[in-house]
Every structure is written in structure tokens, then in C-alpha cells.
Amino acid sequence: MSASGRWLSGTFPREVVVAAAQMGPVARGDTRAEVVERLITLLRTAHDRGAELVVFPELALTTFFPRWAIDDVVELDGYFETHLPGPATQPLFDEAKRLGVGFQLGYAEITPDGHRYNTAILVERDGTVVSRYRKVHVPGHDQEEPWRAFQHLERRYFEPGPGFQVHEAFGGLVGQATCNDRRWPETYRVLGLQGVELVLIGYNTPIHYLPDPGQDRLAGHHNTLVMAAGAYQNGTWVVGVAKGGVEEGVWSLAESQIISPGGEVVARAITEGDEVVIALVDLDRCWDYKRTVFNFAQYRLPDRYRMITEEPKPD
Ligand code: CDT
After folding, report:
1. Which is the closest atom of ligand 1 to the Cα of 180?
2. What is the domain extent for residue 248?
3. Is 117 a member of any domain?
């Protein structure tokens, strides 16, 4: 039974071959068609190696445009998708369905009523759209800060999404998060309280952290630290997938990885470019932890944690 009290549906053993489809840089001038072609190549490579679920990075269809203050609305809108799939992205959806491979893909979403989100779509093996997760923790700043060598204007371009949900998919309970979300324990715990067994996370992480460059040498350590802790403390698999390498002059962390519910990295990228990393994910391993040391029903004391949600947000 899941931690949320639901019996799991599906067949046993509950194993799924998952691919972390890491990407190297996407240039400002790259077209959607060029990027989609790369995604399809990664998808086929993953399928050839047995993958049933392929996880792509955050904002995978474009360069990481929040590094610039873009005042030209036409140019800015060019980074956003009004429809997904749309004409340029349909070939990826078609090929995935033909191969019987599901995927998660990060993209910039603009809704019909003009809201903008940093979104990740999750698609099942038969082409069904499972969910569109909208990033909750939107980092960076909303005004251009000229002292920075490069900007991180996510807070200018995106509003926070409504929250974390799990979905019955790929034979288990799947949750989604995006980049900065992975640094926050609440992300995993809210998913964990819903019984999550597999958390999918795309990221773009500049290694140079301008507010405190002393953290730069720890970028890789922090990446693994937070995802491994989230995995272990909630008894869940975690898949972290980078768009890494030097993109438009900014060096971003690669180190895509797949982490077990014991908090062990079972597969890790060895390059900063387009690379597929595969692991056999046994969802039942989650229950080694969910029914013992992290048996929430038995051991959690939510009334002692009230401050986490009741404390007002500081100004
Ligand atoms: N994309 C994203 O969320 N990146 C942030 C960068 C640090 S905050 C400026 C991250 O948490 O990796």
C-alpha cells in the first residue's frame, strides 16, 4: 500500500528501465527543429538500451534564456511554447509513441491567459499526457543586476506553480520537480507524503554562483547531496538530469544521475554533453525504507512540525 493509503495498481515485479538523457549546451541561435532532432537521437539511443522512460533536462528546447534581460517581447515569446506538442515538437512525441517510450521534457510554457511557467511535461509510453508540472521554487532575481557577469532572471519570466503531485504512471507513483526545487527538503517530503516512488528532476545549474562564489567548488557535491538525501529520507528513486557544459559562455553543472531509495548513485554521466545514462529501477525497493525507518504513519510527528507551514513568509 502506498504511504497515502492507496493500493498500487500494475503488474509485478514493478521494474522500469529509466534513462537520464543529459544534454550539452543549446546555443541562442539553435532552432527548435535542431534541438528536437537532438532529443530524438537521445530518445532512440535510450530505447536501444532498453529504456521505457526518458528524462530530459529543464528548459530543454532552448538555451537557458533567463541569463539575459530580454525586453523585446517577440524575442522573449520565442522561447516559450503556446502548445506542447506544437508543430516543431510533434516529431518527438510521434517518435516516442512509435517506440513505446515515455518521457519528461522541460520547457517554457505560456498559457492562453498569459501566465508563464517553467514546466515539465510527463508523457506515458502510449503517448498519453500524464501531467504538466510547473516549477514551484523559482530562483534568481526579477530586475537586471548589471554587476553580474550573467543574469538569473527566472523570477522575471516565471511565476511559481501550484504545488507537487504524484501520478500513477510507469507502474508506480511518479513525482516531478525542477532544478531549484531539488534543493528544498519540502519538495521531496510533499511528494513522499503522497507515496512517491520515482522523482524526475531536470536542471540548469550555473557552476559560478555569483552571490557567493565560495560555493562554486561545491556545486557537484550539493547536487548529489540534496537529491540523495531526498531519495533516502522519503524512500524514493530520484533521477536528476542536466543541461550541462559551457552554454553561451556560462559553465553549467552536468553530473546527471540516478539515485536509489538508499541514497546511492547507481548511474552517473561522465561527460558534459549529450549522453544517456541508464538504470533498472525496481520500484519495490522504495518499500525497504517506506515500511521501516521512514514509516511516516508510525514515526512522523506532524504536530511538532507546524512551524514549517504555519510560520508566515518573511517580507
Ligand atoms: N535553473 C535553476 O533553478 N538553477 C538554480 C541556480 C541557482 S539559483 C540562482 C539551481 O538551483 O540550480
Report:
1. 11
2. 16-308
3. yes
* Best mutation site among 135, 152, 221 for ligand 1 pocket (most ligand atoms within 8 Å of CB): 152
Nearest atom, ligand 1, residue 211 CA: 9
> What's this model's pTM, rounded to 2 decimal places?
0.96
| pLDDT tens-digit map of 55-113 | 999 999 999 999 999 999 999 999 999 999 999 999 999 999 999 999 999 999 999 99
* pLDDT value for 299: 98
pLDDT at 154: 98
Task: Tell me if 291 is assigned to some domain.
Answer: yes
Q: What's the grid cell of residue 202?
A: 531536470
CA 82 – ligand 1 centroid, Å:
24
Which residue's CA is minimally distant from atom 3 of ligand 1?
A: 180
Cα–Cα distance, 276 to 18 (Å, whole number):
10
Measure Cα distances from 127 to 28, 41, 101, 122, 188 in Å.
29, 18, 8, 10, 27
Split into its structural domains, the chain has a count of: 1
DSSP 108-135: EEE-TTS-EEEEEEEE-TTS-EEEEEE-
Q: Check pocket membership of 118 for ligand 1, CB cut-off 6 A.
A: no
State the CATH number of the domain containing residue 143.
3.60.110.10
pLDDT value at residue 315 = 66
Residue stretches of the chain with pLDDT short of 50: 1-7, 9-10
Within-domain flag for 4: no
Size of the chain in residues: 315
Domain annotation covers residue 314: no
Residues 21, 31: Cα–Cα separation, whole Å: 19
135 is catalytic: yes
pLDDT at 3: 44
Ligand 1 in contact with 204 (CB < 6 A)? yes
Residue ID of nearest Cα to ligand 1 atom 10 = 180
